[in-house]
Amino acid sequence: MRVVFLSPGYPADMPKFARGLAEVGASIYGVGDTPRDSLPDNVKAFLTDYLTVPRMLDEQDVISRVSDWMRGRSVDRVLANWEPVMLLAARLRERWGMPGMSVDAVIGFRDKEIMKQRLRAAGLRVPKSKRVHTAAEVHEVAEEIGFPLILKPIGGAGCSDTFKVDSWADLEATLPAIGRLTEASCEEYIDGEEHTYDTVCVRGKPAIENVTLYLPKPLEASQQEWISPMAISIRDLEQPKLAGGLALGRAALEVLGMDDGFTHMEWFLTPKGEAVFGEIACRAGGAGLVDQFNFTCDIDLYREWARAAVWGHFEASTTRKFNVGMIFKRARGWGNITRIEGLGRWLHACGGWVVQDGLSRPGTPRRDWKQTQVADGRLIVRHPEWDEVMRMCVSAATDIQMYAQ
Question: Cis bond leading into 11, ω under 30°?
Fold first, then answer.
């Protein structure tokens, strides 16, 4: 089975997907703008061949170069798991007559306004929203929706260029910050807990599902430097409070025409118990969500995603064994990290429930917390009991401090 895999070396999780493809018997033809000699060794080991392109996001140029490169060789699948190249993968599939998500289906997962229009037409609860191109259009939609509201890119990922706007004065202050965007989504702000709904699908049906709770909501965490963001996967998906979100996620997959592979959805649980759609992508969640999913069930979803995407079936156990918490830390100060306080005590107190200590160590340059959710590293804990995981997460957030200068 020959697979063209887009951007196998970037972002940081992509080498794990390349490894998964190799382990299920795929021959991998990687395409990326990272020079071949600069690819990580854990990518090179799995590639049959590799094409370097000058600009990965120049779709027409990449399509032309890849078509010339693969001329005379059969291709069975075109795959990707990085948001900016999902549509490129679909265009290559359509050009070559490959199985997989069509361009129209991927647009429904990529364009946040088309996405919400399709789900709204199917009767699903989505935020009120409109596509806007100018400040005048933003003002018009704000009059209609009211405050607070959200302004965010049509095809973005994470919280990049996403703003909560609370008043007319706040709106005037925010408009210059999004002035570089040619279009945006202006939508109703939904109050409540924010969760994910993550799946690996086979022929559009979830073979495995996961729900993670964000603490606090990612948008809030992206605005306050002192916060240690947490994400906790929930072992018990049968609890009544999650039923609406699970039903919403399953319906969204059907309406949007999901095929094989990962999906990552965000949804809100309001104080009244209503499940409200946020957004969805037909790729894996970032910032360690796949690793968290793996630790929840003791499986390897990098391999199982590959099995689903290449062979159309799923073999891993779906038994949920643990609640799994990830805690992301941000150092105080700038420059190189100089010390970490409280880590040793925390590790000793948590014992064998710690499954990953990925904090940056002294001497490492501090990362810009506004540019990466991972910031200065993460800790991962798991436990069968929710209260125990919550206790360990809160302790890590409050009792461990990192310093830089």
Answer: yes
Beta-strand pair 261-269/149-153:
unpaired
Range list of H helices, 289-353: 289-297, 301-311, 343-350
Task: Report the DSSP beta bridge partners of residue 205.
Answer: 202
144-176 b/e (C-beta count within 10 Å ≥ 16 → b)? ebeeebbbbbbbbbbbeebbbbeeeeebeebbe
Domains of the chain, CATH where assigned = 2-100 (3.40.50.20), 128-188 (3.30.1490.20), 192-321 (3.30.470.20), 325-405 (3.90.1170)
Three-state DSSP at 89 gives: helix
Amino acid at 345: R
Residue 32: what pLDDT?
Answer: 98
Contact of 90 with 106, CB cutoff 8 Å: yes
Spatial CA neighbour of 39 closest among 52, 29, 28 = 52
Tens of pLDDT along 112-132? 999 999 999 999 999 999 999
Classify residue 83 by its DSSP letter. G
What is residue 255's predicted lDDT score, i.e. its pLDDT? 98
Given its phi and psi angles, is residue 280 left (phi above 0), alpha (psi -120 to 50 degrees) or beta?
beta
DSSP secondary structure code for residue 51 in this structure = E
| 349-391 pLDDT tens trace | 999 999 999 999 999 999 998 888 889 999 999 999 999 999 9
Eight-state DSSP code of residue 368: -
